[in-house]
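Putative glutamate--cysteine ligase 2
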Amino acid sequence: MRAEAAGVQEPGLTVGVEEEFLLADAATGETAARADAVLARARSLPERRSGAQFHTELLGTQVEAASAVCTDLAALGRRLAAAREELAVCARREDALLISTGTAPLPGASTPTAEGERFARIQELYAGVVRDYEVSGCHVHVGVPDRETAVAVVNHLRPWLPTLLALSANSPYARGADTGYASWRTIQQARFPGSGLPPWFPSAAAHDRETARLAECGVVVDAAMSFWLARPSPHLPTVEVRAADAVPTPDEAVLQAALARGLVRTALAELAAGRTAPHAPDTQVGAAAVWAAARHGLSGQGVHPVLERRVPAARLASELLDHVAPSLEETGDLGRTRTLLGRVLDEGTGADHQRRAAARGMRGLVDALARRTTRGRDLGRMDGIGAGTAGEAPETAR
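Predicted structure tokens:
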């Protein structure tokens, strides 16, 4: 999400998405450390219809696209699709495939860490944990008026974060094998200190004291770093929702954006009515809910954060939609979101699609991921990147 475009309009209206991707060798399907070359091409494109900014990530096999800020979900979807196509074309010119998946089905021989002082500090602190940490997520930013509000909103989001994870589950494979989990990325992330649901905080000051304490304890590189599934952004006037795996298609990224924005707007309405968030879920129940979402996705049982018992994960997804429906109706997004959610419930998550594609072998799975990442469009026709890729450029909030 571009910092210069983060001017707040109506609270809870502006939204942007950061998508992380992996690069796979076009011949072998193994991850390929070509991020620098791909990003150099992407940044020098003569025309970028997406308006995205492209960044390095922790490993040289990863790239990130940060969208411009939008207020309209259709415009956001066009921008996300265009950014994926731009990166995919540049990857093809480096004999690589752009794949949107939470973990690498076929890891390469080595994955050098991206350059930069902060990346070097992360490598030094976490050692072997990050050496092969080829995981990718989909992060949604929603504009809020100030940091105090952001912390209060995150308190309201806590019970729903495992359901956002279950909907996005897209990482069943690692090192060429089925892990048995829908989101192995979540299990990989659990190796870091302070992962999972964020604690309940009474104020922004309390939140900042905790992040400073973690830095002082030496378990994060600085107070701006955390592994919680949602947080007030350290750099922007936004709530950052980080529960989701990297999702297969732009439509599923739009679904995450719609539900995250709906949750933020619902929380803002609750706060305006003087209702603070309850402390639920309990720490252990919350951890159980995250684990169940990672293990099963939508295909099995989830953990109800209030009832504190097992229920079908699909029921939790329906309850989430009911919870945010009034807010989605306000922005005109209820029909679109219901359609996108229904498609995932009917056709399965990314993890379900991956398992079906893997019937043709792991190399076939990588090809299927590349096709879904860009909706199967013919990349060879896109030498100029512009015509016909994303429709007319939408307005952005500045």
